[in-house]
Structure formats: C-alpha cells, structure tokens
Amino acid sequence: MARKLSSDRTLFAVTAALLGIGLVMVWSASSALAQENHGSAYHFLVKQMLWASLGLVIMLAAIRVDYRKLRQRSVVFGLMGAATLMLIVVLFLPTLNDTHRWIRLGGLSFQPAEFAKLAMVVFLAYHLERKSGRINEFIPTLFPALMLLGWFAFLIFIQPDLGSAATLCLIGMALLFVAGLRLRYFAVLGLLAIPVLYQAVMGAAYRRDRIEAFLNPWSDARGSGYQIIQSLIAVGTGGVTGVGLMEGHQKLFYLPYPYSDFIFAVIGEELGLIGATAVIAGFLLFLWRGIRASWKAPDDFSRYLAAGLTMEIVLQALINISVVIGLLPTKGIPLPFISAGGSSLVMTLLSVGLVLNVSQHAD
Fold first, then answer.
1. Whole-model pTM above 0.90?
2. In which element (H, E) is residue 62 found?
3. What is the distance between the alpha carbons of residues 318 and 252, in angstroms, rounded to a whole number?
4. Where are the domains of the chain?
C-alpha cells in the first residue's frame, strides 16, 4: 500500500510564524505613513493581507502538484522563456523611481526579477540532474549554467538593479556548490567577477555614494548616509526588550521605507534584541528544514530544487538584515515573508510550497 504523503510540519509552521510576524510588523511600520499619504492607516496592511492570501493559495496548490512535472523539458524551457520575455518587456514600460523593475496591471504590480530567480533554480535543478557525474566538465555542464545566470543577471542589471542581479548569481553559485562543483572553479569565477563588479559600482554615481556611505555614513549624514544612520538609530534604540509594539519613533517619517526595505529595523526598535533574534532564529530553522528536505529528497532534481529555493529565501533574508545593521551597503532587497511587497511574497510562498512538496517524498 502506498504511504500517505505528509509535508514537513515544522517547515510549514515556521513559514506561518514568519508570515504572521510580517503582517503584524507591516501594520505597525506603515500605519502612520499610510494615514498621511493614502488617507487610511490600513492601506498597506490590507494590500499585504490580500497578497498573503493569494500566496497561501498558490503555496497550497504547489504542495499538491507533483514536483516531478517541473522536470519536463517543456516546463523548464517554458519558464525560462517566460522569465526572459518579462525581463525584456519591463525595459520598455514606464519607469518607477527611475527604474524599469515593475510590470503594472491596473492597481497590481509584479517584479519579473522575482520570477527569474525561480525559473533559474528550476533550470539549474533540471540541468544539473541531467549532467550528473559530469558536474565538473566545463562545456557540457558549467558553460550552459553560466550562460543562463549571465543572461538573467544582465537583463536585471540594466533595469537597473545590481543588487537583485548579484543575488541571482549568488543563488546560482550556491546551487553549483551543492551539486559538487570544484572549488577551483569558484576561485576563477570570483577573480573574473571582481573587475565586472568594480566597473558596475564605479560606473554609476549613486552606487559610488552608497559604498562611501557604507564605509563612513556620517560623512554625509543628511544625504547618502541618511538611510543607514536612521536604521542604526532604530536598532540601537530598541535595546534588549524593545520600546513596545506600535511605539517606535523612527518609522514616523525618519526611517525610509520602514514597511519594506527597513522593516527589520522597526522590529529591532519595537521588539528589541529578543524580537530580532527570534526572527533570525526563524530563518535559521527554515534553513535547517529546507536543507533537510533537500538531503532526504528521492532524486537529484528534487534535491537541487529544494536546496536552491531554500537558499534563495535565506540568502535574501541575510542580505536584508545585513543592510539594516550596516554590514552591507544599502540595497533594496526585501525581507522574505515580512517586508511589504506583493510579487516578492507570492514568489516566496510559491517557493516554500515546492520545498514542502519535495519534503512529502523524503526518504
């Protein structure tokens, strides 16, 4: 008799907990700004709840659909084609904040870069399984993987969005590492990436300003260093126990984007070290259960799929938190499950659904 399939309950529980924390903190961080700018303190909360509801429906659907359908050639290349089409189309749409990152349909908006990350992980899982035993051969294995990463990264970079392009490449490198690529390849790729990254940063004045602000934010406290200074003030003010939920002051027109990019700073101020540590612990637990699902997966495709999607989520959380506490230059990478944002939340929950799907088949 076939065994009953059951998803990882711990992984599901930590996902629900992080999502719940996100809804509460979006409400706390955005209510004052929403009232001022939109005439309703519930503006961002209602939008986030709608996106969360849609994301949960998609997550549950992803759990029920057999993940092995994703390894079909038509599905893999269909996802790649759709991602490429969206990344090209968005370049010809009107700008938002001087960038071409969003496809807007009425009151809804979607960021193609989020979909490209999922498509890239699915392709690499498919490709690396097919090349099993030949992982360290350049032409049949590494070259196609690097071509896809480079193509997607280029289309995202010219939006312009260097942070998302770099994150995409890091996710790809992490997945190649899991597949067993030799370290000497990473050393060569790292050396080749240095001049490319240097030119990308130094070729734009606003990126140079961000690096200078990262090294010494007080040199331009009212300009390029403003965001990180306000973020550090928020985190430092919270102390161990925080000033209390809804009682933070930095979110009141001081901290930029307190409900999205810098929501972890609001957590640090209102919930203190205890609350911030609890969120970090949640992501560490998520990492453990996701890697566990990958380790126990029944085949290489599902192993790479679960590992790639898990690292995609955790790596973005690491980058966001590092920016908020001043360990990385300022970059608008959302905190998964918690930051306000529709496309990011929906794609994150879809990714969780696929990991939970794989966990059902764990050996």
1. yes
2. helix 43-64
3. 25
4. 9-360
